[in-house]
Every structure is written in structure tokens, then in C-alpha cells.
Amino acid sequence: MTTAELIAADSGTTILIKALLVFIFCVVLTLMSVWGERRLVGRMQERPGPNRVGPFGLIQALADGVKLALKEDLIPAAADKIVFVLAPIISATTCFMSFAVIPITGEVSLFGKTTAMQLTDLPVGVLYVLAIASVGVYGIVLAGWSSGSTYPLLGGLRSSAQVISYEVAMGLSLVAVFIYAGSMSTSDIVAAQSTWWYGVVLFPSFAIYAISMVGETNRAPFDLAEAEGELVGGFHTEYSSLKFALFFLAEYVNIIAVSALATTLFLGGYHAPPGLGFTEAWLGGWFTGIWFFSKVLVFFFVFVWLRGTLPRLRYDQFMQFGWKILIPVSILWILVVATLRTLSLEGAPRIVVIGFASFVVLLVMAANIGFENAKKKKLESLEVEVSEPSFAVPTVPMNVSNINVSQSSKGGDHV
């Protein structure tokens, strides 16, 4: 039976149990992610990180969550109270909904029934994830607008512009995957990577998606919606207590969600790395979930690595990078992939396919060299020669130590 047939045969009780397991997995992984990030960044900055609450500080994130929940809940007088309360709820709920179409394991046995750890298998599952991510930004925008304060409003506007810019590049990077897999279903895309992972075959798409998902989640060096040096705290400046904790939860669940989607689309999903396929039958098929989580954790480590290494970009640099580099490169790559796929399906000789690919590479290199030369010429033309001024300029003594200054008893200064 296919994955879609297994999921269609699930009873209501099985679906409820799987949904509960996915929710628990997301919450527990969020707590561990907070602890892991603080420990990793601490090591990068030559300090221990959390090490007091529980063994190795493992309960620190749970203690912080309880502390936030018990703090006083403040609502600004100028805030739109209904929208102010709804905004963190929107952000926290939409990030969990993405996991409905993510295949976490292959075929497993759950309470005596054969199924797969995937809640539903939509024919357009990837589009569903992108749609949910687009709705999730409403929580940030509404939080900034409803606070009735300047800095949160600026943070919300930045986030909306940021998400629009980088969701375009993210969506375009997935088109190549759809062309090669011939489907938008997440389970079909995973099955199509049984021989080669798309992270290797479609590496430019993988690189564009990896950059876009960092911008999508407002993480450093793209955390311009929360830039504390410019906007105090960004869109959540006026939030406290449990509402702030919901935004905190949404950020880390979003990181896990985009990492899970990247694993599904580019790294073979729950499949083992090449040469280790025999492990997929271990533990009754549940070992495939361990491979899936391992790949997600690799992406999470990259998120933490970027935060501890790179400084924040300027806003104009960030927007130019998205609109002038990522989106044009994505469109060009789609044209190349579509042509190569058509040549391959129509049985063109391999030498033709390789020749076309080589021509595209040379064309891109030539265009890059041309842009660099044009940039150098533009910088040279902007250089202005400094000329001597036409008016008299008093000379400045080079050695001020030779100047003797004495003050007379009459109050006059003599040099």
C-alpha cells in the first residue's frame, strides 16, 4: 500500500493519537531547542551557557516558560485589545498546522495498525505549507499594529515586507522540485528521492531555499523585525507574560517546521543516507523517524551557527539581496531545470544535456564577470579628485609641543 492509502485507512482514533504525538513532539523539541541554542551559542562565545537548573541546565527552558506564564499580563491603554490578544494565538497555531502534511516516518505499526506518521497527504501538500506560512505572518503584523506604539508598528511592517520578499524566492526554489518529482504531494516527493536526494541534484534550489527559510523565520542575520538595537524588541515590544511566550514558542516551532520541510523536499525525508537503507526496518520502521529528526537537528544547528557568527544586515542590503539576487537567480534556474528535464524525458543524448548545462554555467560566469566589471567602472567614475581650495587656509603648526603658552597676571594670554 502507498502512503496515501495507509493514511486514508486510518480511523478517527488513530488520527487523534498521531496529532497528539506530533504536538508533543513539537513542544518538547522546542524546549530542547531553546536549551540547545543557549548551550551552543555559549560555547561559541566561550561561556558555559545554562548549567544550573537541572542536569546540564536541561530544565532551564521549562523554568523560563513557567516564569513567563506567571508574570503579570499587561495590555497597553492604546492597544486594540481583541486584536492584541488574537495576534499571538494566530502565530502559535499556524506554525503547528504545517506538520499536518510532513511525513515523519515510513510505514510503522501503531497500536497494532499499520500506518505512517503523517496526518494527511494532500495532492498539493507543499502549497498548503506555503499558505499556512503566509497566514502566520498576520500574527506578527497584527501584533505590531494593535500595540498602539511606534516601534512595534515598524517591526510589523518590516516583517511583512521581509516575508513577502523571501516567500517569493522560497516558492520559486520549490518549482524545480515539483518539475523533477512530478507532484506537489510531500509523500510523493520523498518517494521520488529514493535514488538521489534533490539537495544534490537541485543544489541551487536547495541553497536558495536554505537562505529564504532563515529570512522567513526572522532569525539572525535576518532578524530585522526584532532588531533590539533599532526597535527595542520589534513587534512584541509591548507583550508580556503568556502572550510573549506564545511568540517565543511560534519562533522555534517555525524553525523546526521549515527545517522539516527542507528535509522532506531536499534530503530524502525519513529515508536513511545512501548505504544505510537496511536501518529503515529497525524498530518496526520507527528508526526512520530517527533519521528524520537527525536531519532536522542539522538544520537547527545551522540556524544557531548563523546566529552566533554573522552580524545583522542593514535593511536595504537585506531587501536588495532578496529582490536583486535570489529572485532573478531562482527564475533563471527554473528555466534551466525545465529545459534539462524536457531534454531528459524526450530521450535526448546525454552529451546534449551535458553540453546545455555547460553552456548555462559558462553564460552565468560571463554575466557575473560582466557585472563585476560594470560595478568597478561605476565606482571609478564616482571617484572625485580632491583639489586645493581657492580660498586662504591658515596653516596649522605640525608640532604643538614647541608652543609655549604663558598667562600674565593681567589676565592676557601671550604666545
UniProtKB/TrEMBL annotation:
A biological process term (GO) from this entry: aerobic respiration
GO molecular function, one term: quinone binding
Short name of any one Pfam family annotated for the protein: NADHdh
Reaction(s) catalysed by this chain's protein: a quinone + NADH + 5 H(+)(in) = a quinol + NAD(+) + 4 H(+)(out)
Signal sequence residues: none
Entry-linked InterPro entries: NADH_UbQ_OxRdtase_su1/FPO, NADH_UbQ_OxRdtase_su1_CS
GO cellular component terms given for this protein: plasma membrane
Bilayer topology term: Multi-pass membrane protein
Classification via PANTHER family: NADH DEHYDROGENASE SUBUNIT 1 (PTHR11432), NADH-UBIQUINONE OXIDOREDUCTASE CHAIN 1 (PTHR11432:SF3)
Job of this protein: NDH-1 shuttles electrons from NADH, via FMN and iron-sulfur (Fe-S) centers, to quinones in the respiratory chain. The immediate electron acceptor for the enzyme in this species is believed to be ubiquinone. Couples the redox reaction to proton translocation (for every two electrons transferred, four hydrogen ions are translocated across the cytoplasmic membrane), and thus conserves the redox energy in a proton gradient. This subunit may bind ubiquinone.
Subunit structure of this chain's protein: NDH-1 is composed of 14 different subunits. Subunits NuoA, H, J, K, L, M, N constitute the membrane sector of the complex.
Family assignment from sequence similarity: Belongs to the complex I subunit 1 family.
The protein, known as: NADH-quinone oxidoreductase subunit H
Gene: nuoH
